[in-house]
Design a protein that fits this description.
single chain, 210 residues, mainly alpha, 74% helix
Length: 210
């Protein structure tokens, strides 16, 4: 869904809708896992999402928006939230992060292979850069980052883990400045402050009455 969205709508809108995932995940956890969204957490989610939105919308617009692309991005956000929700369920938490990832890949890989011919050639013109990217994605992002994320989901509350996803577009822009000399304006600093404040509110312990 995400890659279809990138083809059909603007990068900014795709990113903004995609990173609404923590909101949907928090709602799923509230109704399905009993992890209650307090007023403080709701305010934190709103602040952090606002920071994410400021960071994404501060970039120059590229491409043209379309409803189909926006819906694909929303489907990607829902799919991501549902994946996290399933991983958070007791039956999956008992499997451990490595086995959770194994089952996810085992189920999704055949589906993607069957769907691939509908969106272009099954075998693409591979270049060395593509191979390097594939190795990086599989060894660092999936085997490292995704397993760590699944482990965090098994230990900490859903909203706590998901809230840090709001930092992704902000960190991407900061890395662009560090590695490629891209300009970081006041909007990004404001976005980072909003996201940080939101994450603090989400993770602030609630006081229990004595």
């Amino acid at each position: 869904f995400l890659f279809l969205a990138l083809d059909l709508t603007t990068v900014g809108l795709s990113s903004l809708i995609m990173y609404s995932m923590p909101v949907w995940f928090a709602l799923l956890a509230h109704f399905g896992l009993g992890e209650r969204i307090t007023g403080l957490k709701a305010a934190g989610l709103a602040l952090a999402f606002a920071g994410c939105a400021v960071a994404i919308l501060s970039r120059p617009a590229t491409g043209e928006a379309s409803l189909a692309g926006d819906l694909c991005a929303l489907g990607a956000a829902w799919g991501w939230a549902l994946t996290a929700y399933i991983a958070r369920r007791p039956v999956m938490r008992a499997e451990g992060p490595e086995m959770q990832l194994f089952w996810m890949v085992l189920v999704s890989a055949p589906i993607l292979l069957l769907a691939a011919p509908f969106f272009g050639p099954l075998i693409r013109d591979l270049q060395p850069l593509h191979i390097v990217g594939l190795i990086f994605q599989s060894s660092v992002v999936v085997a490292g980052g995704f397993i760590a994320w699944l482990w965090l989901l098994s230990v900490y509350p859903a909203s706590t883990v998901a809230s840090f996803s709001f930092l992704t577009p902000i960190l991407a822009i900061l890395l662009g400045a560090l590695l490629f000399g891209e300009t970081v304006g006041p909007a990004i600093l404001f976005a980072a402050a909003l996201a940080a404040a939101g994450i603090v509110l989400i993770n602030r312990p609630t006081s229990t009455p004595r």
